Amino acid sequence: MRQTPAPAGPVVLVGDHALTARAAEFAFAEVSVRGVDLVVLATTKTRKASRHHEFTHASSSLGEKYPDVSLHYACVRCGIRRALVKASAESQLAVVDAQDRDGLRGGLAGMLGNSVSRATLRRSDCPVTVICGRGR
Fold this sequence. Notes:
Strand order of the largest sheet: 3-2-1-4-5
Strand content: 15-25%
Organism: Streptomyces sviceus (strain ATCC 29083 / DSM 924 / JCM 4929 / NBRC 13980 / NCIMB 11184 / NRRL 5439 / UC 5370)
InterPro entries: Rossmann-like_a/b/a_fold
Order of helices and strands: EHEHEHEHHE
Low-confidence stretches: 101-112
Protein name: UspA domain-containing protein
Structural class: alpha/beta
Helix content: 25-40%
């Protein structure tokens, strides 16, 4: 973390890179406790209708569990790493999923296995929570 996080800023979640239910659940719970908005980032490059529908369906069930959460989608034109780092300047927390899709990595490398989580940890202006583990 390079700066003081924005006290009234949202929680930011990457919503289109193999997002697990665990990461979404964590983000919704944090937003509910903090009383701020949840912003889900998606890129125009990778935003496919099926993936968007899958996340919309998952978020609607979480919306029932956390009715106080205000959910917003932000579709960005740059890469997701750059968008997340940029959004971190105005956020109080970034939530990223470090799912090891191949199941080959262990230890810290496995937990921080994807490039989005590594870039966010190195360059974020707000605290970062990396959600580890397999499964949806």
